[in-house]
Amino acid sequence: MSKKPVIVFEGIEGSGKSYHISQLAKYLDKKRISYIKIREPGGSLNAEKIRKIILNKKSNFNKETDLLLYQAARSENMSILKKNYKKKIILIDRFIDSTIAYQHYGLGVNISLIRYLNNYLLKDFSIDFTFLNIVNKKNMLKRLKLRKSLNRYDKFKNNFYQKVQNGYLKLSKKNKTKYQIINSNLDMDRNKSLIIEKINKLI
Ligand code: TMP
User: Fold this and answer.
1) Which of 40, 86, 92, 195 is the most exposed, fewest CB within 10 Å of its CB?
2) How confident is the model at residue 148, as a pLDDT?
């Protein structure tokens, strides 16, 4: 029987993660392999409502409020995720590493608190593999400029995103077999093939 892994795509703004997850979804559609795909923050109906509040340009919550809102959105997704766990392939555009990378490494929120909340929400639900998309400063800025509208989290200073990316890299180094780095400064089609090659080993 084929495996039904939980696959997460992580990375900072402009790192190509959303492009690659949608390319992977297209590939699975073509192969008629069933899966569910959600994004965070967002995903379920209620989580999308919370996303709008967090990312609204007019919001100015403090960093702890942001943490709790991201976790609130996650809490709303856990029933969908748990319902499909091991039954379907699950693709997630950002998940718990985003909270550690952005709220802890980027904004300095206590890491134990973040881990406690993540463990509390996830319980036995675990990630099988993460594609960590990385990008250099020049390409990140180029890609952000192409966006039609920028949300509240697209407007930090450059060095914030560098801190976040370094945070992601630290996380990936702690558990090397469960991460693959996708260098989005390199050829996109080549990266797409690398991802599909890995997925075919995982499913
Ligand atoms: P997106 O544009 O990739 O959908 O992500 C929205 C923003 O939310 C992005 O800047 C990263 C941020 N984020 C956090 O800060 N913490 C989290 O836990 C998650 C899931 C996202």
Assistant:
1) 86
2) 86
**Nearest to residue 11, comparing CAs of 145, 191, 202, 200?**
191
Question: In the predicted model, is pLDDT for residue 16 greater than 80?
Answer: yes
Closest residue CA from atom 15 of ligand 1: 102
Whether 115 has a pLDDT exceeding 90, the answer reads: yes
pLDDT tier at 142 (50, 70, 90 boundaries)?
very high
The residue whose CA has the least distance to atom 13 of ligand 1 is: 98
| 93 CA to centre of ligand 1 in angstroms | 9
Cβ < 6 Å from ligand 1: which residues? 13, 39-41, 55, 70, 94, 98-99, 102-103, 153
| Main-chain phi, psi angles of 75, to 5 degrees | -60, -40
Q: Would you state the pLDDT for residue 171? A: 98
Q: So what CATH class is 6-202?
A: alpha beta
72, 120 in Cβ contact below 8 A?
Answer: no
For residue 94, the CA-to-ligand 1 centroid distance in Å is 7
Predicted local confidence at residue 1, as pLDDT: 55
